[in-house]
Amino acid sequence: MLSDLDDDYRRRTRWRRSLYVAQALHVRLIGPPSAPSAHHSSHSRGPMFSTLWQDTRYGFRTLRQQPGFTFVAVVSLAVGIGLNSVIFAMVDNLLFRPLPFDQPETLVSIYTSDEQGQLFGSTSYPDLQDLAASGSPFDQVIGHAMMFAAIGVSGENRLALGEVVTANYFSALGVRPIAGRGFSPDEGQGEGGHPVTVISEQLWQKSFGGRQDVVGSTLHVKNRPYTVIGVAPKVFNGMMPGLTAELWIPMSMVADVEPAGQIDVVPSATGATRLQQRGNRWMFVKARLKEGMTASQAQDMATPIMASAEAAFPISNRDRRVTVVPAGQVRIHPDIDRSLRPVSAVLMVSVGLVLLIACANLANML
């Protein structure tokens, strides 16, 4: 009998304890059940939110009363958060952001080797024409090179970064201008006869005030009037991650600008201009693979093309080989990409430590 009474006592005790815990949680999260409806304000959401609001107001009052401490705390956190944001945006742009092209899986980068055996060298315009000829494994071959150009808009002159490109640049990449059009095939032919340009959305807004009638306007490049025929979309900044091109001009107008980047010049008797000299390698090449073609198959088919060029032009094309790499595997340049990921990781760790130090300093001041 005594053991039965002990068991009953323990059961009642456990039940009351559970009931007390449930009631305490109810009061803490929702409020007392008998709270009058006349006080339906921030308290109606429970004591927890009321306390949070009171703590927030108290914190702001404290910060106002101690402006020196507030300034140091805000600056410390701003430096840490700002550096993290800038570095992460840069790393994201260089490493992780997808290419802004249609069907990037069919796009490849094409390189020719140089005299020192460097596999990932630049290409000359005549070599590009050979790779684009009938019988090649490529559907469309695109030439592009970064450039610096002295531009003038409405009396304002400055140096701008852009690209000189083949006429099929926008159409082959699947980039559709938000105003106007890209280059037509005839605008890429000849030399010096097609002063037209496609400008970036940034240049459109900054120098043309976002005018809807910008197509047909005039922009001076090296004191020569160019007609604006299109505006590129904001998401497209050109072929070089981390850099923003402000304008694009067709390859036929390359004499008006100065190409920048990897330039390999072999003295040759062929041609007098960049578009004619087979030994003047100043552009990079991308191409669309034909349907069903892989990058390795394309390289096997492109190798005899370069061998034929070497036989026909032994001075400018001696020991030149072709390398085809899927464009998705290239962010800036294969040689640069090897060290890009470790450097980016070190940068992210470094700025993370800066934020950690800023938080530790703030905690120490508190």
Any overview of this molecule?
The protein is an alpha+beta fold. It is 40% helix and 20% strand. The chain is built from eight helices and 13 strands. Strands 2-3-8-5-7-6 form a six-stranded mixed β-barrel. It has a two-stranded antiparallel ribbon with strand order 10-11. α3 runs antiparallel to α8. The longest helix has 32 residues. The radius of gyration is 33 Å and the shape is globular. About 3% of the residues have low confidence.
SSE arrangement:
Elements: H1 2-29, H2 47-65, H3 67-96, E1 107-112, H4 125-132, E2 138-153, E3 156-165, H5 169-173, E4 179-180, E5 196-199, H6 201-208, E6 218-221, E7 224-231, E8 247-250, E9 258-260, E10 264-265, E11 280-281, E12 284-289, H7 295-312, E13 322-326, H8 334-365
Parallel strand pairs: 3-8, 5-7
Antiparallel strand pairs: 1-12, 1-13, 2-3, 2-6, 2-9, 2-12, 4-7, 5-8, 6-7, 10-11
Helix pairs in contact: 3-8
Task: Give a quick set of tags describing it.
366 residues; alpha+beta; two-stranded antiparallel ribbon; globular
Outline:
With 366 residues, this protein is an alpha+beta fold. 40% of the residues lie in helices and 20% in strands.
Structural class: alpha+beta
Total DSSP E strands: 13
Output the strand order for the largest sheet: 2-3-8-5-7-6
* Global Rg: 33 Å
Report the uncertain regions.
Answer: 35-44
What is the overall silhouette? globular
Helix content: 40-55%
Q: Can you give the mean pLDDT?
A: 83
The largest β sheet comes out as: 6 strands, mixed, barrel
Order of helices and strands: HHHEHEEHEEHEEEEEEEHEH
Distance from N terminus to C terminus (CA atoms, Å) equals 62 Å
Helix segment count? Answer: 8
